Amino acid sequence: MPAITADTLTLPRIAAATTADTERPVRSITTGPSGYEGEGFPVVRAFGGVSAADLDPFVHMDQMGEIEYQPGEPRGTDWHPHRGFETVTYMIDGRFAHQDSHGGGGLITDGATQWMTAGSGILHIETPPAELVESGGLFHGVQLWVNLPSKDKFASPRYQSIEGRAVTLLSSEDGGALVRVIAGDIDGQRGPGQTHTPITLAHATVAPGARLDLPWDRGYNALVYVLSGRGAVGPVGHPIQQGQLAVLGPGDRITVAATSRQDGNRPALEVLLLGGRPLREPVVQYGPFVMNSKAEVLQALEDFNAGRFGSLPANALTPHRVR
């Protein structure tokens, strides 16, 4: 798992809890069901079985892989539309090529994030580059959908390429955990992602036997998703493992601990920490459209069919196939 690494002893340390701080309790732990996305790549539906109210302002999240593809097997998506939200694609292992109808695009690789504000409407493609399709290889990433408030549903599309080296790196108080802040604020340290909806998104690596204790905005919800490994979450130490999501209750801090023994091919506990200020607005989702009403969804379908989401660029990517 080569997402950006660093010597935790040289990084800023997250401040210890005060006597006035409270740990967020665990409200639920769910196991995401497996499925397939796009042209047939395997995913874990991380939010499966969790209420929309607990997720708000998030709508959907897939863990893509972790899978070791054979030559000719890698798959992605073909061109498709979005409106009304932001897609956040974070690559941990492997490569994904992105292109959209508003000029955004590039190669997402180890530790990089591509943040696309669909807003008023956009077409895009995410596909493995030809060389990865030909060779096969390890593929592992996450795609998160962040809802936009009604006032920003029709914002101009925007594209952000966040290279792995640009994320903010922090260490736990004892140096046993590395935290990569992609967006939002942790202990006064901000990540590079620019968001319409106030959120925090971070990827933490917790060494076997170590514990991560970090402050979290009381006005945000709090979710912990295990990408890899085994550990415990919350003040009571609820067990949690790969593919599971913990929804936390109110409080000032999130606590996650890694078991002292991890699987041989998973040397540490890898978790995504995410939360945001709930929008508390109606959500009507139909496929790639996330709006506030059925009428807005129908308008999105009409606008897409009328070609109002932009045009494919002259050098449009297409999915590669081994002949």
Automatic annotation (TrEMBL):
Keywords: Iron, Metal-binding. InterPro entries: Pirin (IPR012093), Pirin_C_dom (IPR008778), Pirin_N_dom (IPR003829), RmlC-like_jellyroll (IPR014710), RmlC_Cupin_sf (IPR011051). Residues 43-146 form the Pirin N-terminal domain. It comes from the Bacteria. Its cofactor is Fe cation. Belongs to the pirin family. This is Pirin.
